[in-house]
Write a structure and sequence with these properties.
heterodimer, A: mainly alpha, B: alpha/beta, Rossmann fold, 2 domains, 4-stranded antiparallel beta sheet, 9 strands, 27% helix, 22% strand
Chain lengths: 227, 233
């Protein structure tokens, strides 16, 4: 009677979450559509002048992507709580924080990565200069996992509450403001020809910190939410 | 129930003066009982008497307010316990979009597997052969319950905590639960099942633990044997 290994548990969780995401693929595409629609609306509102759009492009895309991420956050643990799988996850013999790290990684893969993939298209819609695009992609690649990790902690805290949507937004947004400032800051620095490495490195440092700490905090918060 | 071994081995589960209170309001307890390998014990009580809370405390999901829970004579910790305890709550913990096989494979990955059994055998064992690849949302409530029972068969836990296992099941399903419980007992496992009394474990005469809504005195006939403190408030 030996329990399975930790790697087997993580593999089982990733396999199941990917299968679930595939079954709910229309849900997973929501953030993508949202970001696309928001970005597509800006030229209509501001007019098609290249100079104007160029100046706001990076910031607009950043805001749209982060808000799109917020849309999908609430789903992170909600259905697991409602059908009792969360209890089974907590009761499993393996470290909960590791399992949750897998869950957050799958969430990022299925909701943020598609947005990242269409980001060049978004950039094209707003006439973002081609030399800024790599910086934008790098900043988004660092910022979206941060959103998933910070968001997971907040979701874990609020998942036990009914109608937690508004509260979740209030909790997450202040934490995302620095991410937005540094991410969009790197892009606008690149746009005017200033060095942009420092803000990106800051984002990277936060990401490293969040990868280590956020799963632990999420596990602790979930245990509180379950009682 | 082999009384011979009992003197040598600590009981599978021993509960001493266990109580749980939420916001200073006693939910149950103090409660004393022991559970030996091979024993199936029924926890009885009306709605709201704290049966589910008791199972959650024993599974480690909730931390007791006072008293202690000993598993094989050792104090209970979540890490040690989850390999020994399988819980089936009101919520089945299954994903409706996925098939029975996908759900069971996930359970095995998470909790390990008992030697000599596969998800397919377990599904056949609960009478669901042929439903392996159907999404669960297409199955009836009783069939979903059977999938949840198949999960219990798979994971290598000695102690089963079943919350209202008879709910949603037809006569045949009730018989199935009883058969599963009996063979689990023969393997040396033990089970604690809650029931509000409408259906009950019918094979043999199981020991009963009564929970009452009010806190304070608590008395169970069988507890005299286990040298419990009995009624004294």
């Amino acid at each position: 009677m030996k329990p399975g290994s930790v790697s087997a548990a993580c593999r089982a969780l990733v396999t199941r979450d990917l299968a679930l995401a595939w079954r709910r693929r229309s849900d997973a595409l929501n953030p993508l559509l949202f970001a696309l629609i928001v970005v597509a609306l800006f030229p209509f509102a501001l007019g098609p002048e290249t100079a104007v759009l160029e100046r706001i492009a990076a910031g607009t895309i950043f805001v749209a992507v982060l808000l799109a991420g917020l849309l999908s956050l609430d789903q992170l643990f909600r259905s697991d709580l409602e059908d009792g799988s969360l209890e089974q996850l907590v009761l499993s013999p393996h470290p909960l924080s590791l399992l949750l790290a897998c869950r957050i990684a799958v969430h990022w893969l299925t909701t943020a990565l598609p947005v990242l993939v269409v980001a060049p298209l978004l950039a094209l819609l707003l006439h973002l200069p081609a030399n800024v695009l790599p910086v934008l992609l790098a900043a988004l690649a660092l910022a979206t996992p941060l959103l998933s990790l910070i968001g997971a902690v907040c979701v874990a805290l609020t998942v036990g509450l009914r109608r937690s949507g508004m509260l979740l937004t209030l909790l997450v947004l202040p934490l995302l403001v620095p991410v937005l400032i540094f991410g969009a800051g790197a892009c606008s620095a690149a746009q005017v020809g200033l060095p942009f490495a420092a803000p990106l490195l800051w984002l990277g440092a936060w990401l490293v910190l969040a990868v280590v700490l956020a799963p632990l905090a999420t596990a602790a918060a979930l245990r509180i939410s379950l009682t | 129930m082999n009384a011979v071994d009992l003197a040598d081995h600590p009981p599978l589960l021993a509960v001493r003066a266990l109580a749980y209170a939420r916001n200073d309001e006693a939910i149950f307890g103090p409660l004393d009982f022991t559970l030996n390998p091979g024993e199936i014990v029924l926890v009885e009580g009306d709605n709201g008497s704290g049966k589910t809370t008791l199972l959650k405390v024993l599974s480690g999901l909730l931390v007791q307010t006072s008293g202690e829970v000993l598993l094989h004579g050792n104090a209970l910790t979540l890490a040690k316990l989850s390999q020994q305890v399988a819980m089936l709550g009101h919520l089945p913990g299954l994903k409706m979009e996925l098939s029975a096989m996908q759900n069971l494979r996930f359970a095995v990955g998470l909790g390990g597997i008992r030697p000599g059994i596969t998800p397919a055998i377990a599904l056949a064992g609960v009478g669901l052969a042929g439903f392996e690849d159907q999404p669960l949302r297409l199955l009836s409530a009783g069939q979903k319950k059977r999938v949840a029972l198949a999960r219990l068969l798979l994971v290598p836990a000695a102690l089963w905590l079943l919350d209202e296992p008879y709910a949603n099941l037809d006569r045949e399903g009730i018989g199935l639960v009883n058969r599963l419980l009996e063979s689990h007992g023969r393997r040396g496992g033990a089970a604690l099942i809650t029931s509000h009394g409408a259906y009950a474990y019918t094979s043999g005469t199981p020991r009963r633990i009564a929970l009452r809504p009010e806190s304070g005195e608590r008395k169970t006939a069988a507890e005299a044997r286990a040298a419990a403190t009995g009624a004294s408030a």
